[in-house]
């Protein structure tokens, strides 16, 4: 029986031989990342439509193991302003400052990605360890 480190080194073989199981593991990891992003999303404290933390969506793209990927996006119309920042503009049109972005998406992905990838490898190893 192979160890998990050997399995991770042969993950491309697992992807070729068991694409359905790999796609399931990737979709589970994508959902986990979406939940982490939702938890890390800042809240304005006001009730309104298009709340940032309720606007996260995900989908799976591709048709085979090599091209299959998980995609996560936010549908709130003001997401890019909170994430990247924006100019402060007076009602007269005069620019009087800059509101820096929070960059919460980048920070969350950088912090959580290693754990989620490791969990995905572990789950896939548990599913496929008896098939190798």
UniProtKB/TrEMBL annotation:
Entries under InterPro entries matching the protein: HK97-gp10_tail
Family annotation (NCBIfam families): phge_HK97_gp10
Protein name listed in UniProt: HK97-gp10 family putative phage morphogenesis protein
Lineage: Bacteria, Bacillati, Bacillota, Negativicutes, Veillonellales
